[in-house]
User: Which sequence fits this backbone?
């Protein structure tokens, strides 16, 4: 069960996301944030349930992660901002890489509605089967993104993303916040969650109203948060983690 693998308290938890270097390039890698050892230390001091990293980053801090018993979710696909193609993410690692690093789960992104949706679904299904064979958890970055879709955070789309991840066999789906407690609660209402399936929210770009939104996310029914920039781009990063843990009663 995913709860045991990642030490989740009735499904509740916090993941410190640090897969931004590939996805965003130098834009977010400023100050202390450029150093994965700083992030790993922050994860340890903050007592998060897992860190999320791409393979190249994870292998360089893996001795520290193992020494401090920090759970790793290995992100195994992604893309850069340099490409004009926004609707597909390529493989960056394999399930065997996650096993080699001692990861507890893999992470994978699907852009539902994309012209390449079928390819990402097929790849995910194969990876999910292999991850389960090795006893790894499966976390799906479940986003609706396509040329014909203008508002990715619309409640119907977020609700679809949650349900699609449930149908495809993810243990946890990471979705976008709709922007309000009311609409997010409606989005979650389309899918049963708990008992091995949980909804986590993407922290998003640094925001002044972040902690208020976190409280609303939890009130709406989210089980946890996969947050990066709203923590490690702040000088009071540890304090912010403590506040998030209070909200989720961790």
Assistant:
């Amino acid at each position: 069960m995913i709860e045991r693998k990642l030490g989740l308290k009735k499904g509740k938890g916090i993941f410190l996301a640090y897969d931004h270097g590939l996805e965003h390039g130098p834009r977010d890698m400023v100050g202390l944030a450029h150093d994965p050892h700083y992030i790993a230390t922050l994860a340890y001091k903050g007592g998060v349930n897992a860190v999320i990293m791409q393979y190249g980053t994870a292998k360089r801090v893996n001795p520290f992660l193992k020494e401090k018993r920090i759970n790793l979710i290995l992100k195994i696909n992604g893309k850069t901002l340099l490409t004009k193609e926004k609707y597909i993410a390529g493989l960056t690692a394999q399930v065997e890489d996650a096993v080699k690093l001692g990861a507890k789960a893999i992470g994978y992104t699907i852009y539902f509605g994309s012209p390449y949706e079928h390819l990402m679904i097929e790849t995910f299904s194969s990876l999910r089967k292999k991850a389960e064979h090795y006893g790894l958890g499966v976390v799906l970055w479940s986003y609706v993104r396509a040329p014909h879709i203008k508002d990715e955070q619309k409640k119907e789309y977020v609700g679809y993303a949650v349900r699609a991840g449930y149908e495809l066999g993810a243990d946890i789906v990471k979705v976008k916040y709709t922007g309000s407690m009311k609409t997010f609660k409606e989005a979650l209402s389309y899918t049963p969650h708990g008992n091995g399936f949980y909804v986590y929210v993407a922290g998003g770009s640094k925001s002044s109203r972040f902690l208020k939104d976190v409280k609303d996310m939890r009130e709406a029914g989210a089980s946890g948060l996969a947050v990066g920039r709203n923590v490690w781009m702040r000088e009071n990063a540890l304090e912010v983690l403590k506040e998030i843990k209070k909200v989720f009663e961790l």
Summary: The first helix runs from residue 2 to 6. Residues 95 and 127 are 7 Å apart (CA to CA).
